Amino acid sequence: MEARELIFEDARGFGEAVGDGGVLLGLDLGTKTLGxxxxxxxxxxxxxxxxIQRGKWGKDRETLAALIRSRSIKGIVLGxxxxxxGSEGPRAQASRAYARNCAEAFALPLLLWDERWSxxxxxxxMIGMDMSRAKRAAAIDSHAAAVILQGAIDRLAGGVL
Length: 161
Description:
Elements: E1 7-8, H1 11-18, E2 24-29, E3 33-39, E4 46-53, H2 57-71, E5 75-80, H3 90-106, E6 110-114, H4 118-128, H5 133-156
Parallel strand pairs: 1-6, 2-5, 5-6
Antiparallel strand pairs: 2-3, 3-4
């Protein structure tokens, strides 16, 4: 299967490509960091992972490949940063390019998931946990990845998102 055939923007097609469950990897792509999250094989709960300092694609690929192997990842959910009016700017195009790189490198189904408000939702949750500003700054990307992944798995499980 070609890389472009592995990239989905609808949860239904992605779910069919992944099959009956399996651990998914959520990614929140930033310019300097990459937030990660994973979910259980039954697609019920997303849990924030680590925040990876980004480098060149080769470095990111090695780090992600190790994570994919260690957790037996079956699919990837990558946040797509759309503008509030639904249009796409340079950050969305960068995410689409990253999605193509991931699809080529890992040959796994990849879902581009609208990430509007994910960082704000993650920040609000961390404030609710009384997390200090410094701890929030260090963990915001992985928490945002968990918000992105949770939205996708809720949809995969038949939700209305």
